[in-house]
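ingest -> validate -> predict -> emit
validate: passed (alphabet ok, no gaps, 744 aa)
predict: started
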Amino acid sequence: MGLNRRTFLQKAGLALFSVGVSETGISLLGNSEKLAPWLQPYVQTLAAPTNRKLALLVGVNEYPQCENLAGCLTDIELQQELLINRFGFNTEDILKLTDLQATRENIESAFLEHLAAQAKPGDVVVFHFSGYGGQVKIPATAQAATINPLSAGESYQLVDSLVPVDGILPTKGDPASNELLKDTLIYLGRSLATENVTLVLDASFSPQESFLQGNFKIRTCELMGDNPNPEGLAFQEFLKIRLATGGLQGGLKALPSSELVLAAATQDQIAVEKAWDGFNAGLFTYALTQHLWQTTPRTKIINVLQHAGETVATITDNLQQPTFQGNSTQEAVLNYYAVSESLDGAEGFVSAIDGKTVQLQLTGIPLGIIDSYGDNSCFALNVNSESQDLTRQNLLQISSRNGLKAKTQLVQATDSTPAIKVGQEVQEVIRVFPQNLGLIVGLDDLERIERVDVTSALSAVNTVTSAIVAEGKTVDCLFSKVQKTDTDVGYGLLSVAGTIIPKTLGEKNEAVKSAVSRLESQFANLLAEKLLELTVNEASSLLPLSVTLESSSKLFRQTSRVSKSANSSVTAAMDIPMFIAGSEIKLQLKNNSDRTLYCMILEVNTKNHLVAPYIPKEIDEEGKLVHLKDIAIAANSQAIIPHLVDSWEWDISLSQGITKMYVIFSTKPFSKTLNLISQIPTAKLIRPHILNITEPLAIVRKILEDLNDASAVSPDIVDPNSDVYALDTQSWAGLKFTYQTKKG
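emit:
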């Protein structure tokens, strides 16, 4: 990298000491032949914008002094693939530092040489860090180097830091800190000659008692270093003073605080990484990059960030809520990930070509779907959503998949088939997944004999595919012992985030087999929700429609890929929208197509029960169902639920917690679904027009059958006798709303 950072600091420190920190002193530094490459951006006249895009990506999995992480290198691969194949970064403008390369000195030097020395006004700069975060004790004597000064009477301050591979240095006494202070990173970002700076931090800082949370690994280093490295403090002080004095003589003036910091979690929360089938990744990075693959010219990037944060918060039961800091206006955010007017949403891209085999990276497939994504699913090349006929041509069909990597072949190559190129984007056309999907249950905090008994008992449960030791594996829920009191321990089910699933905790001294038997209905509920997730496809559906959810004067809109309206939200927060318990709720269903669409609405409520908020129906005097009807929306029209002429109000449950609403559309009626509901003797109204689903798994499977029938995928693509569901994006749309309730 040329002049190393240590030499830079020595020369910079000597000059500052000799002449004082002033424009004159700093200009003397600029006259140094060896320092010029770093300081030139700050002493030269502002150059014309170059619109160059630069990135520095740092990921550390293997730490000498801490438990190893598993998903950080995947994170920077996801980010690199996004920047190159989606947002037009050149490969040579992206620098990666991984594991042993990612020392503090190398990170700071790379920031100076690769970013600061090259970035000019108007350029786009992205810095990404995935690894451990931590906190460093800054003594009172060094408090001037921090953004937030000490309070009166404090002897030290805890300052957030990013932990490089050499961040904790072993000593005879307490470990010494060699971490990259978060404040230093902020100062580095502000010192760049461009305002288009994005800092992505997939780490957390608040001290934790455990390395694990449920089935997640926490990205907070449990070791706290004392005695911060004096060299690091001196470097930060230099950056701080340079900015405070207005820049360098004859050069750049101090920029406003215009950098955007995308943080994986709020200050006191955890950032986690999760295992999927075939890979591990930071939950925040995966959600962020996946949603950015879905951006279109109509997409508001601020809403992409909101949806990514909502995804993370939902999976972690609100234990992790991403946040962004800095200039939060929509226009500013658009500067960082600008989308070309010709760009449309995508589910992945061509990563390699080997003869007739085309390898895809499925980086745009939603997080809750990828593990179940099946062979024979199809993607289209160069799809223009304004011309849906193109989706039937140039289909690539999956022959095998490992994690995000899928091997495909053209369904039918012709003389007119265009040449396939590496980097070419693909869009989902046909989604295929097995009919016999089941739950993978993780065994958590159990003795060996208990694990044997649980595994044996679960083998007889038809909704469970397998039971495995949970740590670091892909699971749908956790079977665990839960400490109810100091002396009372019971078996129950936990989410993958480690929180108790409502109404699953058993009594003390319950036998394992009895607990499994008691929980069979809960397993069915969880599998029903897992299958419902597989219907979500607002980013790939070719049905032009939108759904608007309104409550307490808040509006949230979800649209399909080809809808002319854009997703919108009244909040810019990266978490789950909050509604007031008991407040009224309305849905507006808008059909922009030239044919009638049919709709099913289902909710997984705060008690983890499946309900149908509204199905047109006829009931007798005793309240029993007589006839169920589809929600039918005529071509180029809309429906409002509740109807304006109806006397009932749809209000939000008084129970606090998270509710997930699925709004599913089809080009054909949901005949099998409605027929089954009408035949269930225990189906009943729990509130006006709110139907309790007592056999949720059977109902959801019928919905999938109806969608499969409406899709009518050609037998040349999927064998009609195979035990799979095959859904066509021209025939179905699945939109999802997630919200949480609180008392007013």
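The chain has a mean pLDDT of 81.
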